[in-house]
Amino acid sequence: MTDPEDDGVDEALALLGPEVRTPERHRATPWGEARALAARLGAARPTGTRRVPLGQALGGVLAQPLAALTDLPSFDTSAMDGWAVAGPGPWRVREGGSVLAGHAQTPPLPDGEAVRIATGARVPPGATAVIRSEHSHADATGHLHAQRDVTHGQDIRPRGQECRSGDQLLPASAPVTPALLGLAAAAGYDELRIVERPRVDVLVLGDELLTAGLPHDGLIRDALGPMLAPWLRALGADVTVTRRIGDDADALYAAVSGTEADVVITTGGTAAGPVDHVHPVLDKAGAELLVDGVKVRPGHPMLLARLTPARYLVGLPGNPLAAVSGLLTLAEPLLRGLAGRRAPEPYRATVRDEVHGHPHDTRLVPVAHAGGRATGQPAGHGAGGRPAGPASPLVVPLHYNGPAMLRGIAAADGLAVVPPGGARAGDVLEILDLPWAATTGRCFT
Ligand SMILES: Nc1nc2c(c(=O)[nH]1)N[C@H]1C(S)=C(S)[C@@H](COP(=O)(O)OP(=O)(O)OC[C@H]3O[C@@H](n4cnc5c(N)ncnc54)[C@H](O)[C@@H]3O)O[C@H]1N2
Ligand code: MOO
């Protein structure tokens, strides 16, 4: 089950003369190891933290646990509009208006008395229950009668029911969502300490790239510049600049050695062609190559280097789907750690159709949700090693998944991780989610 798309590379390598830098197969890192290394490097050195007003924290992650600054509710609260009562009824109705939300504490309620109360108001000391207006009636003598049994404490939210001051509401690294902002405000916060977003410079290499109009005379449109910045932002990065460097080794060296970003991402120039400058420039810059090729298709020339102790470079191959593969293999786990984010739970789905594999390397193949769930797969059937449960979602491998193509990934909900040798229809495979899947309503998880 070998895809003809993958066959040309080894042949091309064999044609290279000895004077040309030849990628050594044995140096390529297995796909899982490369991801794990990138994740470890990122997690080892998250970027700094800062305090921001609640209104600016959305999309960040908590740098420290969210501990309640108050009991919630912070006082015994009426859960309904009606009557606060003390002891058994009927009750004498207290003169002088209602107890309202936001008002100061009212005098204690003696046994046998009732007072009108609004939802959210402080329950007077001594009250033993709240009776909803629709479950009671007041008679002409100024007495209140319950129309249902009254249980002790009914419709009173006791102080501290949701949390006590100091309780941990959410752990560090929780994503700051609209709901978290609401909870933080309720729990007394004006500001949150969040992890700084790692700063990323994107350097797009290649003299053949146009930034507008139709391809002509061998020139093509830059597909990566428009794609990477928003994708990286969705991964938690702050893209400081997207620069087009052409095939200029000096300009690349200047950009790499002069950067102040936490991560530099280059596109193109990772292979062994005459204008593939990434390796020589990294040598010149004294960078340490941590990953030099990964056993994955597409994208195997991807690389990861350490520029300085606190600065990394991810080299994405120029072929657009190969660049996506490098983005998800190396950049995503590295940035996740730097941004203080937690790893998502590995997610698996059943592939509806056979997927061709590479003989030795992992393949990443765009897949779309089939809108159904696999049932009754025989145990142990999957090359991915796990039987499909009755509720395993079903995915369809998409066409147009060649290294130079974006047509498949643009229609995809995720990328299936296809082990060497391929997968049969019904196999269960790991799926890499795309960061926008949740916003389009097609999320797997
Ligand atoms: N002798 C070898 N040749 C190649 C190898 C190899 O191992 N030995 N690997 C092949 C594989 S696999 C890939 S992937 C590419 C990686 O090449 P580079 O990273 O050096 O990228 P370029 O040569 O600069 O470009 C490759 C291809 O992609 C197009 N490209 C580049 N940037 C963009 C962009 N921003 N938008 C759209 N398209 C882009 C470029 O025009 C080329 O067609 O190398 C193989 N060759
Ligand atoms: O074929 Mo290359 O694998 O990465 O585009």
Automatic annotation (TrEMBL):
Alphabetized UniProt keyword annotations: Magnesium, Metal-binding, Molybdenum, Molybdenum cofactor biosynthesis, Transferase
Pathway(s) per entry: Cofactor biosynthesis; molybdopterin biosynthesis
Ranges in coiled-coil conformation: none
EC number: 2.10.1.1
Region (Disordered): 371-390
Family matches, as Pfam families: MoCF_biosynth, MoeA_C, MoeA_N
Known cofactor(s): Mg(2+)
Alphabetical list of InterPro entries matching this protein: MoaB/Mog-like_dom_sf, MoaB/Mog_dom, MoeA-like, MoeA_C_domain_IV, MoeA_C_domain_IV_sf, MoeA_linker/N, MoeA_linker/N_sf
Catalytic activity: adenylyl-molybdopterin + molybdate = Mo-molybdopterin + AMP + H(+)
Purpose: Catalyzes the insertion of molybdate into adenylated molybdopterin with the concomitant release of AMP.
Protein name per the record: Molybdopterin molybdenumtransferase
CDD domains noted in UniProt: MoeA
Family: Belongs to the MoeA family.
